[in-house]
Amino acid sequence: MKRVLHISKYYYPFVGGVEQIARDCVLALKGEVEQKILCFDHNLKSKDSVDSVDDVEVVRVGQQALIASQALGLTYGKRMQELFTQFKPDIVIFHYPNPFVSHYLLKLIPNYTKLIVYWHLDIYKQKVLKHFFTGQNRRLLKRADKVVATSPNYIDGSPWLSSVRNKCVVVPNCIDEHRLAVDDETRKRAEEIRKENKGKIICLAVGRHVPYKGFEYLIKASKLLDDRFTIRIIGKGPLTESLHQLAEGDPKVKFLGLVSDLDLKANLLACDIYTFSSITKNEAFGVALAEGMYFGHPAVTFTIPGSGVNYVSLNGITGIEAPNRDVQAFADAMRKLADDTELRNKYGEAAYRRVIDNFLFAAFKKNIIKLVKCVL
Fold first, then answer.
1. What is the pTM of this model?
2. Is the peptide bond before 97 cis (omega within 30 degrees of 0)?
């Protein structure tokens, strides 16, 4: 049986977008190949350890520091060398960005080992540091046998991916439909939410309160809408307090904070319009957007050049796209969907179908298995 080594910054039980996709890759390949995972322990000042997740061995390297979102560990190179020597992987699936680990990977990976670089995001948040990784990125992409992008839009928008377009393979992210399964308790809670907001157009937004999520633009759009609307925002983060201040005087905006899975599903089921106000390529795909669409709701999004958001939801098919940061256009899109029940239902049905056809685990598994077989 062929052997695959997965390299991710962190791994379950750490909860993050990249880590979830890394786990999805492992689950997709179970029974197809022998697997191991190399990652950092997400706890600072930790020691090296080995455990098992989903019956797959996870080697966790102790993390001594975290600088500019980059984990650092003194024994990382040693642990990687041990895996290459003892496990002898036929393929490495490397989840990028991870520049500290890229250094060791390029230094230690054997010539016979195939490399799949899973490119989640360009580095552009760290305005200065990103320039130090230019040469490293070139070497990494040159060494790669295949490069995974989560959408064709990201290939077009990334100078790195577009430079190796011939190596790129699109593997869209997937949602966890089992986590989103609806039962009688969920339906009961959703009905309560509808009764509490009787006569209202319920708009829902879900995500961390960080700049790239664009919640400030959703709140500004709310101020342009009439009292038919209620905007329910799930999540919290560094900007929570400032968002509360921005929404002062607008009773249409309701902050729900962090909620249970039950309440999340109930709100997804109860809403009429799913608002997704992200504004930058930090939102590389939009799994939360796909989750809203899975419940049969039309989406209102901004145009984000190079982001997968506008690949997940298609303008004029599954929802309406507004020019980036154009608050008036965003509000107009919400109003248009509120005024036209037939259009709302049409887009909602198309949104559900798009997720079913493209963004469930079955499609993801098929894509990952095909990719690995192609590389081998």
1. 0.89
2. yes
